[in-house]
Write a structure and sequence with these properties.
By secondary structure, the chain is mainly alpha-helical. Helix content is 66%, strand content 9%. The chain is built from four helices and two strands. The chain has a two-stranded antiparallel ribbon.
Length: 95
């Protein structure tokens, strides 16, 4: 139990001092992005599993962006709007 506490403490401290936690090609994932993604899951899996899932999701997002860039894949605003109308019946508002 003591080892787990020390490991979690070191992990939390490393977030405070390490800004970049992963790199995917030209994209960098920061500790701030990771913590924000972890909040979405509301730590429902426990700290470690939530952290792992959040980091995996962020890496997958960046891999998709990298693939799209490398293959010239783009999506314009009208395509996004059409998708949401077709699939969800929702019209997006301007932010």
């Amino acid at each position: 139990m003591k080892k787990i506490f020390i490991l979690m403490f070191l992990l939390i401290i490393s977030f405070c001092f390490a800004d970049i936690v992963a790199e995917v090609g030209p994209f960098m994932i920061t500790s701030e992005q990771l913590l924000e993604k972890m909040k979405i899951y509301d730590y429902e899996y426990g700290f470690y599993e939530t952290q792992k899932k959040a980091l995996k999701d962020l890496i997958n997002d960046d891999l998709l962006l990298l693939y799209a860039q490398q293959n010239g894949i783009t999506v314009d605003k009208n395509e996004v709007e059409s998708f949401f109308i077709e699939k969800l019946g929702v019209v997006l508002r301007e932010l």
